[in-house]
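Minutes, project huddle
Topic: does the predicted pose make sense with pyridoxal-5'-phosphate bound?
PN asked that the exact inputs be recorded in the minutes so nobody has to dig through chat later. Recorded below.
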Amino acid sequence: MDGSRITLKATDMPIVAALRELADRPQARFYLPGHKGGHGAPEALRQWLGEVLWRADLPELPDFDNLLAPEAAIAAAQDLAAQAFGADRTWFLCNGSTAGVIAALSAVCRPDDRVLLPRNAHRSAIAGLIHCGAMPVLASPDYDHVWDLDRGLTPAIVARAIERYPDLAAIFLVSPNYYGQSCDLAALIELAHNPDRAIPVIVDAAHGSHFAFHPDFPASALASGADLVIESTHKTWGRYLRRRCSTFRAIASILIGSIAPWPVCNRPARMQCYWRRWTRHGSRWQRAGDHC
Ligand SMILES: Cc1ncc(COP(=O)(O)O)c(C=O)c1O
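Predicted holo structure (tokens), as shared on screen:
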């Protein structure tokens, strides 16, 4: 962590403090958004949502900070979050855990690398593989016959996969799963981190961002030794929608989702290009037939 930054208390809220200061400052708003601090907002919405929300709806101004190259309030808040989660670094995401999953896979994998993942991984993991060109090794998760539910990967499944595919570039786990059940992460990560292999482990903990904060919860993915963890703080914490974190133990470089999804959504050419990549990878994956 950058030692030159001001030391903050865990209860400090650097982003809120910076927003308040800027929102309340008398100013002419020659910048986006077009509602100009609420003056151009629909009256009914202004009355319903209140004045402050509009005044505080600010972009990456020099006096605030920039999510893509944070140096001030966002950097300080990310440092605080890293301390709270017990991570080396934390990045806030605006494009959802989906952006975190794609960024994590892209940071760890090169084209044609093999990645072990459960068949019931979230679709963002498939998007991440397409994005970075890695090849999936799909493992069937354990099945709970009593409750009729797909669970996660077990140490036996992962050990078998590592033996069959010793060149795995990463193991991607989902824990907890969609039903709240956790894997035995410590055992799975120990298998991956065996000194002979040292396979990086990415954990999609979208539904487990609260685990680090109470001893009665299962151990968090970071506490279990994961290298890179994606958490949706809006899913199990009191956060606004589309606010997520990626927390990293040891990996320093990462691509990060941009502040707005509209550059992709608004450009049909980019979408077509993405679609072409998707279909090309789909047929390669079928041929490759890496399953276990
Ligand atoms: C396990 C898991 N991973 C990733 C995601 C993607 O999260 P987001 O909607 O924040 O992009 C979800 C969404 O429900 C999920 O359930």
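Observations noted during the meeting:
- Residues 25 and 251 are 39 Å apart (CA to CA).
- The first strand starts at residue 89 and ends at 93.
No decisions taken; revisit at the next huddle.
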